[in-house]
Amino acid sequence: MKARSRAARTRMPVVGTALLAIAGVVATVAAGCGGGAGAAPKITTTARAGVAPVPPEQGAYFGAWVPEGGGTPSASASPSESPSDSGSPSDSGSPSESPSGKDAGKPGMAPVAGFEQRLGRRLDIVQSYRGWKSDFPGGLEKSVADGDRYLLLTWDGGDAREIVQGEHDDLIAKRARAVKALGKPVFLRWSRDMDKSSEQKRVHSAADFTAAWKHLREIFKRENVDNVAWVWCPTARGFNGANAGSYYPGDDQVDWICADAQPGADYDYRDLSEALKLFTEWARGRHKPIMIAEFGVPKSYGPRRAEWLREAAKTLQDPQVKAVVYFNSDEQAKNARDRRRSYSVTGDTHAISALRELATTPYFNPRNLPVTSGG
């Protein structure tokens, strides 16, 4: 067992008009004030304002990954496909509930609408996952693009050396045209967690990865795709000895820097601030907005889940953090008893209440979306 955290030592345990209006004024923004770390660098992005997603002038967008049914241990340990587009309300909280709202009946949106209903607000960002050779956009992506939420499209990477050699150019160009055809701003998070040892067979090396990233971007440029913001996203843990920063393609190649930051199954209890510490220290040297694309509180924390989320809300109110995305899923769990890798708050009254507090804090509602009591 690794050393416990500080806390554990003391206690065991196209978009709508409003969205474009924000985007149009902040292609380059100065970081705002928040309750987190100190002054952040001036934030810049290569994304085209009003066409691709850019940071809010103040605060951070709030989003989520909400798979159908909440994600189950029988699913892939790492999501690579979006949920079924059937529109089933299987994640609405209880068998008798049905999500309401004008988008609930759209393909793939029932779980999202149910989550928003409990949260008491609409999401800024909805995440989807697609495999390297998968066709997209599917029903969920089209439904998100059809509304006033941002789409965060997480696309698995292929073999880096094959990409550089041009073996997948046709596939990449086809997907680039598909994203362009959506006609709405899209966050594109390609080949996330590239620093993991489990990814090395296809990534090969940091040099191979950065070359593949640049090749991909060049094809998107050739296809005149300008509605994409490129999100570079290793693991937060990769900044502790794995040299995740070596996979960074360069400021001219990246619009948002990101990290996946679950606390880690080898800790009894660990604050989000500790999981993010080395990543955020590295990020201070980049003039880029930060996205935390996968954060979640394990079910193993039991009654302390609400406390963890309230502390996370303080940590994330960092002037450089411009988007946070909750991982409301249990699909990384090895089996039904694995509570250390289960992050869904569905059915946990205290945890969903604390997450609702976070999501409705003005800092995480920069578009001033309507807020209800939730439930």
From TrEMBL:
Gene3D superfamilies the record matches: Glycosidases (3.20.20.80)
Residue runs in coiled coils: none
Chain ranges of the GH26 domain: 3-355
Compositionally biased intervals (Low complexity): 73-101
Family in the record: Belongs to the glycosyl hydrolase 26 family.
Region named Disordered: 61-111
Lineage: Bacteria, Bacillati, Actinomycetota, Actinomycetes, Streptosporangiales
Keywords in alphabetical order: Glycosidase, Hydrolase
GO MF, one example: mannan endo-1,4-beta-mannosidase activity
Species whose genome carries this gene: Actinomadura coerulea
Protein name: GH26 domain-containing protein
GO biological process terms held by the UniProt record: substituted mannan metabolic process
